[in-house]
Specification:
The complex is a heterodimer of chains A (111) and B (113). Chain A is an all-beta fold and 111 residues long. Chain A is 0% helix and 47% strand. Classes of the chains: A mainly beta (111), B mainly beta (113).
Amino acid sequence: DAKTTQPTSMDCAEGRAANLPCNHSTISGNEYVYWYRQIHSQGPQYIIHGLKNNETNEMASLIITEDRKSSTLILPHATLRDTAVYYCIVKEIQGAQKLVFGQGTRLTINP
Amino acid sequence: KAGVTQTPRYLIKTRGQQVTLSCSPISGHRSVSWYQQTPGQGLQFLFEYFSETQRNKGNFPGRFSGRQFSNSRSEMNVSTLELGDSALYLCASSLGGAGDTQYFGPGTRLTVL
């Protein structure tokens, strides 16, 4: 079973920041938080991951709370091409190469 | 670098047949994982190969098998196809270390009639 909880769907206006929350209250100290997204019927695309510090790359920012029980993925200036299902996944640092996907959040960017 | 490639992209089979899907990982990646995605069950892990050995396995029947070659390319085989095997089959590659990121291919859409 997935160890994360995400809202089923969200909407965001084009050009605004999209903030996608994820709850992982049972996360342990040796687990990363990963974010992937999947645009309709394509393979999941890696976005970002982090352990306890906030992370930023060219696609997004990842904010992890101090207690690590939740995180937020931020797409700073959403475009229509960001419409996708976003998956938040926790994965052990030393664990198997196995990603456990939940149902994700269906993000719709509106013009 | 070229991304993960999967062939074929689309496939139609009938019940009882078998099928082989192929995955070429990113150059230098030694781990290949396979996933099945269906509307009902979502994305589920099938198995992972590393250095030609199956390293991890999900909860799927023995009809699902795979192998990896010395160049890290991997194949997945499904025997005695059932209607429920209709799905998007995805492979992902990584360097193989526990903390290494997996990158997915575009998938193979299998339809079983």
